[in-house]
């Protein structure tokens, strides 16, 4: 009844989709991705028209069709611009080389004679691709920082450019002279520009979360900024009649605006699970195309004028969840997020109990005192906030780190707190007064990624991007024991066992290691199984198991003695998993992810699965993967398809709570699949 505006989704790229565009006739879609490829798709079916276009050596940042639809142009982090035959996918020329830094944006002139590109080298280049594909003598230089976006006027006379220097310039295409600007008004970098097809206007979008119109007749701002997005606006496009403008944002939404009034016509359109990087209108204005950092391309119905009616069951985080902890009584979960907030959730219902705001930038880490009195949070804004659980209205803020706070943990006595930072230091604070007790200590040569306190409160452990682990005396700050060296990548997490005998570490080298706390010697061979960086780990209460989470989106529970996986991998998260924590009774594990969700898993039993009718032994189980929207069984058989807007909140069999914008729990009691799938339409069963 509230089916979203999404018409279909393309999920074939293996990296962020950085740029998308309709062909002028609306029949095709071109996309450029962080996976280094360019693809051309059928705009009606989403099918791949030709094999991916490969040639760039790094991420593809921008793609565009020529106005006759015959060619595609692309630019990349590899500093080059390339031309392709849109039908065959063959290179249409040699790579255009000249920029001395990342090429951020590229476009064809309407005549097809020229390609214009903008780069972080602060220049705009005009390439003559009608003759010999060599750059003309015009290299436009005036911006004081990298050029992030360009646009070509409908009459082919002007080039508009936006920059990291927060200004907009308009250049004469023939002479290279500046004819309008600099337009100044944005408080952050300019991410996107668009010429109106029907009026002397330019629209600009910025990381300051606003859209602004500029009148070329008066050389001045045209009206107030358009506000509504809650994160940087990345892309804007006018409809062909100039009456509407579509915008995409890192807040994961698209919005359609009325140009004359600046009012919102439709949206926000939700469905992407990561920032929207690029948007495009079809030539007839009936469809909108979007690309996202979630590696998908989506086509939307642009005709509807109502706002999305679907609303979240509960207030949820609006950006990645970076840290999660249980309260000591086991009744609540505390989480911190990139949306700058700390939230407290009821464990039984998954509903929000409290929301705490005190930081001016994303929350990197949180901690709950063992006595349950305090909640502490550390942020990229270089501060630590401490709240009393009984009074969450105000916080005691500690300003002392010289860079973002990466990790915090309370001592067992709940009276002290240790913190680590990008400034390479450790500091110990009095939780009651906020005064510095010890430090700053600087045991590492790079930033401190993680800190931990031993169960007896005598030692502090830290891990760093220099690949080392240090254990310090908590009273003197002096080194204690060995140097725990062996990781070949950054150490993202350290954790003491509850007995204090062992110290475990997780690293970018994708391994987990268990060390003797006092000697610094590695106890067993590294635990290996994750396919990407391991970001967080935690010991079970009896110290026999370690739970780990990773950028590979999975959760695993390891046997400490054997290094074997006891449970998992648990699938379910649709983004990197940042944090994990056992409940006080050890029966539950909470995990937090970039996909903006928190999942609670029952880890008290062995492997868990939901048997699907007439489909044994194909089961929805812990390790059932999500492949292009399909839940896949252990033998890779496809079980059922999940719509994009239900995926991040889908309950896996082991989940007891899923805190998400659209939590989706399946009733499989009447589910039909496999050879009897057609019975889903058996009217006698209604």
Question: Average pLDDT across residues?
Answer: 90
Helical run tally? 1
N-to-C span: 18 Å
Q: What is the CATH T-level topology of the domain at 335-604? A: Methylamine Dehydrogenase, Chain H
How much helix, percentage-wise, in residues? Answer: under 10%
From the spread of the alpha carbons, the general shape counts as globular
Q: In CATH's first tier, which class of the domain at 335-604 applies?
A: Mainly Beta
The secondary-structure class comes to mainly beta
Cα-based radius of gyration, to the nearest Å = 27 Å
**Uncertain regions: pLDDT < 50 for 5+ in a row?**
305-313, 613-617
Largest sheet: 5 strands, antiparallel
What's the architecture of the domain at 335-604, going by CATH?
7 Propeller
How much of the sequence lies in strands comes to: over 45%
* Count of extended strands: 61
CATH superfamily of the domain at 335-604: YVTN repeat-like/Quinoprotein amine dehydrogenase
